[in-house]
Each structure stands twice: as structure tokens, then as C-alpha cells.
Design brief:
8-stranded antiparallel sheet, single chain, alpha+beta, about 300 residues
Length: about 300
């Protein structure tokens, strides 16, 4: 069975990086290496992407004290946490008796380590069990170094504040224009999911309007797992965490890759661009008990225009 699906292979060919992608395929497996078992056990956070009953893709963040991620078997991950009731993926993951496809990425910003895990999740008690289909090593480029700490959940007494919409408010647009980190969830045409990280200096996300975002696709490992999925299925979900107060901004919409040379050349460091059209917005204030300090920006981040 090919490591890459036809969308990924097509993007690799168009980018002229098929040979590099062939080399990178060694970083894709189906089991968690022993060193990664220890890494996961130390983490207080994992990003999860999935598709809701209406076909919208969302990304969210699950947190817990270190140890809430466990690998009881090399091809199984357990998460001792579920999305809160206001989370857009709560209906999918809180009562998943039958397996549902999820994409995940575990990140340790303090050391710039990360890994992706994709598979089939079902709800078990107060958590999730995921049978893994892909375990993917990732490089640390464009990941900002910052320290995090778990605290009491904001709004625990009154519940989090939820704001739904179909377009970004002015305040949300301003926040995204200052973002240095976000996460993107995508799926292929058969429903298999993936979650990935995007990072850069503040301003690398361009807010073109209340319903249109654009960001550069920088040099990476040439796997093109995200862009390959988008070629087959343009539906995507973004997660912008506001690390200082635990607010999570979830966006769902569609995305396309911009290859036109004239457009790409205007953006420093860009190899391609990605444009994202917003269909749905959910902002949950105080959604996360994990708060982050100020960043040390990656030395790989290109300058922002």
C-alpha cells in the first residue's frame, strides 16, 4: 500500500519535490517509537481534528496533567480527556461508540518537539482510545519556543463564554493578524484526517477580509500531507489558541493552494500560498486550562512583508 495518497503525490510532483518526499517517507510509520512514548507521557496538550455530522472540519485542543496521553500498545493512543460541551467537536468525540477518524499533533513548544498521529477514535469512559494508522515525525521549523502551565479552568464557576458566527469580528481579525501559531485539520476524500502546525512571525497570517485568510506555505519536509488532502477535499478547520487566557478560536471553511508565481513571490519565504474561506466561527473564552508565556520566535521564520 503506498505511503502517500494520490493527492499528496500530485502536490509533490507539482512542487518538483517527489524525490525529497520519497526520502521523507521514512518518517511515516504505524507504531509509536519507544522514545516517542516517553515524549507523549510528558505532554499536557494534544491537538485533535475531526469532521462533524454536517461535514464541517474542526480542530480543537485537549489538555490534562502529564500522563493523560498514554501508549498502552505501539499502535494505540489513549487520551484521558474529552472536549468540553461547548467545543465544536464535542458531539463527535464525547459519544463516539463507533470509530471516527481523527488527526492529531502533539507539540512541546518549550523544546520545539512535535509528532503527528492519525487514526480511528472511540469514546471510552471519560476519554478516547485511538487505533493508530499513521505516526509521523516532524521537524521543529517555524515552531515558537514558549513555556506553558496548567491552571484552574477559566470560567469554571459560570461556564465559558461562547461566540458563534459566520464571519470574523473586527476584534478577531486583529487577533489573527498578530498570531504566530495556529493548527490546521484536513481530511482526504475517504475521510482519513490529519492535523498540522503552522507558525511564523506575527503577521504571517494575512486577514484579507472578515471571511478570507491567507498564509504562506514555507519550505518543509515535502510530504505535503495538508496540501495533498486539500487537493482531494477542500474542507478544513483552523484553531487559533490565545495562550494567555485560555481562549480558543475555532474556524471551519474551505481552503485552496495558490501556485501563481506572481502572487507567491510577493510573500517572503513563501513557496506557495494557502487561502482559507471562513464558513463558521466559534470562539470559546476560557476554554483551556493551559496558558502560555511569551514566545521566542523560531530562527527559521521568514520576515513578514
Amino acid at each position: 500500500m503506498p505511503v502517500y495518497h494520490r493527492g499528496e503525490a500530485a502536490v509533490q510532483q507539482r512542487a518538483g519535490l517527489a524525490d525529497q518526499a520519497e526520502f521523507s517517507r521514512g518518517g511515516i510509520g504505524r507504531t509509536v517509537p519507544e522514545v516517542a512514548v516517553a515524549f507523549l507521557a510528558e505532554q499536557p496538550m494534544i491537538i485533535v481534528g475531526g469532521t462533524d455530522a454536517g461535514g464541517r472540519v474542526w480542530a480543537t485542543q485537549l489538555t490534562g496533567a502529564p500522563g493523560f496521553l498514554r501508549v498502552p500498545a505501539p499502535d494505540v493512543l489513549t487520551i484521558a480527556a474529552l472536549p468540553h460541551h461547548d467545543d465544536p467537536l464535542a458531539p463527535l468525540l464525547r459519544t463516539a461508540a463507533a470509530p471516527v477518524q481523527v488527526g492529531m499533533i502533539a507539540i512541546e513548544p518549550a523544546t520545539r518537539r512535535r509528532m503527528r498521529l492519525n487514526g480511528r477514535a472511540r469514546t471510552v469512559g471519560d476519554g478516547l482510545r485511538i487505533d493508530l494508522d499513521q505516526v509521523i515525525a516532524n521537524c521543529p521549523k517555524y515552531l515558537q519556543k514558549r513555556a506553558g502551565h496548567l491552571t484552574e479552568e477559566e470560567g469554571a464557576a459560570t461556564g465559558p463564554t461562547v461566540l458563534d458566527g459566520t464571519a470574523l469580528t473586527r476584534r478577531q481579525q486583529e487577533a489573527l493578524s498578530r498570531a504566530d501559531t495556529f493548527y490546521v485539520a484536513t481530511g482526504d476524500d475517504r475521510g482519513a484526517m490529519d492535523a498540522s502546525h503552522r507558525g511564523g512571525n506575527p503577521g504571517f497570517v494575512e486577514v484579507l477580509s472578515s471571511t478570507l485568510l491567507r498564509w504562506p506555505d514555507y519550505t518543509g519536509n515535502a510530504m505535503f500531507l495538508t496540501l495533498g488532502n486539500l487537493l482531494l477535499n477542500p474542507v478544513a478547520g483552523l484553531l487559533f489558541p490565545h495562550g494567555q487566557d485560555g481562549t480558543l478560536l475555532h474556524l471551519s471553511g474551505t481552503a485552496r493552494t495558490v501556485w501563481e508565481t506572481e502572487e507567491v513571490e510577493r510573500v517572503p519565504g513563501a513557496q506557495r500560498l494557502v487561502e482559507f474561506s471562513v464558513d463558521a466561527v466559534r470562539e470559546v473564552e476560557g476554554a483551556s486550562a493551559l496558558h502560555w508565556g511569551e514566545p521566542a520566535y523560531s530562527r527559521f521564520n521568514p520576515p513578514v512583508r
